Amino acid sequence: MAGLLIAGTVNAQTPSDLAAAAEGWRAAAAAAATWQTDPAQAERAREAAERARDLAQRDRDNAERARDNAQRERDREMSAYEQGQSALDAAKWDRAIQAFDRVIEAKGTKADGALYWKAYAQNKLGQRPEALATIGTLTKDYPKSRYLSDAKALEVEVRSRAGGVDPAQENDEDLKLIAITNLGNNEDAIPLLQKVLQGTGSPRLKARALFVLAQGNSQKARDALVTVAKGGSNPDLQMNAIKYLGIYGGRENRAALGEIYSSTSDVEVKKRILSSYMTSGAKEALLSAAQTEPNQELRAEAVRQLGVIGAHEELWTLYQKESSADVKKQIIRAMFVGGDSSRLIQLAKTEQNPELRLLAVRNLGVMGSRQTADALVEIYGSSKDAEVRKAVINGLFIQNNAEGLVALARKESDPAMKKEMVQKLSLMHSKVATDYLMEILNGK
Q1: What angle do CA 9, 14, 17 make, to 5 degrees?
Q2: Which residues, including other chains, have CB under 8 Å from residue 91's CB and lie 6 or more apart?
């Protein structure tokens, strides 16, 4: 009991966890001290320790549910925002307004951008009073929004066209797209491209201008791209500019990404930079973020990106130094993504934290190789943990490894575990599985 509570104290992640674990530790200590002299009091202490442990687990579960709910809300917001952007590109103005209204109602991180693009769509429909009202809401509710500069330009356009040509009837954007595409590496065109980025064009038009700018070979073009990546435009363009710095790589681009990362507190911008580090193969930058970033969400993202580029040694070094069980879980998942079966086997055999060991076993089960299959059979034989054994059975089932399951079933004396194996074998289309099931039916 005391050992379990010590582990709970070490792995506690929140103040509530720590308080509950501490209470449990005190109860366990009391139980140990009084067991011989007062069994009844010791039993009460044991029950208090169990309640403390249950409370800590409940708090962890509630925190995890809260994180999951928040992530789902962010995902819904981003989905609606992207639907609105797609509708703008297709000139489906009404549909765009509906999508952006959902984003605005969510009052999340994309609400100011949604207000700007809603006003843009309203202007395209000729709804100028409505567009001006939407711009007014953006200005009032989000006085520090980075869309304000674009909104002011849009307001000038809306007011200048009052009583004039209906913007919805203008058909010159396709011509502009063709012109931008054909500018290529013409350095003289950079000021024109920058003007498009700062103007009131559609997302598609601005994205095309930024793409052409990113392909420029000159220092002037690169400087213009870095300016956008540093936030010299609206957040949508900034995210794309950061992506292009990663795609086109190079020492200067990675240095620019590092400068932006260290100077911003925007988590979403930092996530995009970590993704660009991955694209450009910047292992050192990702490793630095994984080691030094105070934000646990960003540390986990850096770890995930290290897994994508197969940074096996870096991940192993991180795992050995890491103290957070949550981040260690991310490292194990990154090892799986990177295909590092050797380290996962090592963790599945030696990790002292039951939750982490179980996660390593489960990931091995999804890695269909002879090495992982043999390791799973060996782990089953050496482990007495029922959850680990069940994870091995499930892993062999996922791998369609009837030979391994049959070999374990023949040796298994625990009826419950043997039943688990037989149930899995009954679902497998394998001669080995069928032959073994026939043996059971024949009483062999």
Answers
A1: 45
A2: 124
CA 299 – CA 289 distance, rounded (Å):
6
C-alpha to C-alpha distance for 94 and 158, rounded to whole angstroms: 18
Q: Which helix (H) or strand (E) holds 140?
A: helix 128-141
Out of 8-12, 76-80, 174-178, 187-191, pick the least confident.
8-12
Average pLDDT over residues 55-68: 75
DSSP sequence for 27-57 = HHHHHHHHTTT-HHHHHHHHHHHHHHHHHHH
SS3 1: coil
| Rounded CA separation 308/317 (Å) | 16
| SS3 state of residue 389 | helix
Instruction: State the burial class of residue 427 (Cβ atoms within 10 Å of its Cβ: 0-12, 13-18, 19+).
Output: exposed
Number of other residues whose CB lies within 10 A of the CB of residue 198: 18
Of 40, 46, 54, the C-alpha closest to 26 is 46
Nearest to 357 by CA among 385, 336, 378: 385
Q: What percent of the chain has pLDDT over 90?
A: 50
Q: Is the pLDDT of residue 280 over 60?
A: yes
What is the residue type of 360? A
Give the predicted TM-score (pTM) of the model. Answer: 0.68
